[in-house]
Amino acid sequence: xxxxxxxxxxxxxxxxxxxxxxxxxxxxxxxxxxxxxxxxxxxxxxxxxxxxxxxxxxxxxxxxxxxxxxxxxxxxxxxxxxxxxxxxxxxxxxxxxxxxxxxxxxxxxxxxxxxxxxxxxxxxxxxxxxxxxxxxxxxxxxxxxxxxxxxxxxxxxxxxxxxxxxxxxxxxxxxxxxxxxxxxxxxxxxxxxxxxxxxxxxxxxxxxxxxxxxxxxxxxxxxxxxxxxxxxxxxxxxxxxxxxxxxxxxxxxxxxxxxxxxxxxxxxxxxxxxxxxxxxxxxxxxxxxxxxxxxxxxxxxxxxxxxxx
Length: 309
What we know:
13 strands, nine-stranded mixed sheet, 40% helix, Alpha-Beta Plaits, alpha+beta
């Protein structure tokens, strides 16, 4: 029996734009998903038959990266599903880490690469941001050029990403989950169509990339006030791209008076927003009053790990 775990993540800056090769920053958070795997007579997930319809990421990972027999898979998660906090990346990463450990071949970079391939197969078009953040933990900066603290380089078609370790300071965020579980794939596809058809949308994506570059500099300087302003600007651009929602905007508006900045995180359309703040209890109350589900989280956590082999 193998037990592994992987963290959820928040995207600080750059979601959606990263799919087009622009930079993005993601931070691991202290909400984790655990995966227990053991040999079995038939493949199941939490006692139910393993099928693509209900378990697309696990099914694809097992099909492409497992040559052994049936497995009993148990998943336990602190990460709300469909929340924009990397639940699909975490389950993919944790399961692939378990497969690696069962073969005595656990390697974080290998897990990150395989997990990106799995997400690409399931979602149709993806970036390595979520899967690399869950694999590595801590913080990552994804860019289109090599630089300091390079972790790995990933190519797909004409796109490429250089994934760097991001030496982020310890920060406190409040997540506001709308309770709306939005699927990533359709939202990514919608933005892709918008960008391919209009110059205006392409310019928005470019501007998000520029904000992210500036955000990396402010993060290194520990300038939380400037970082918060960039987060809010990023959110406004994402809203113009059409991936925010009334519920997300309500929570962002509730958090802003008590925060350095606030924005949606992840694919949007529902899911969650994040607020960078030193008043987390007050922000949590404001989010709850507006119908959101608050989570106070810390950054600087470990990535994928084998808990017990």
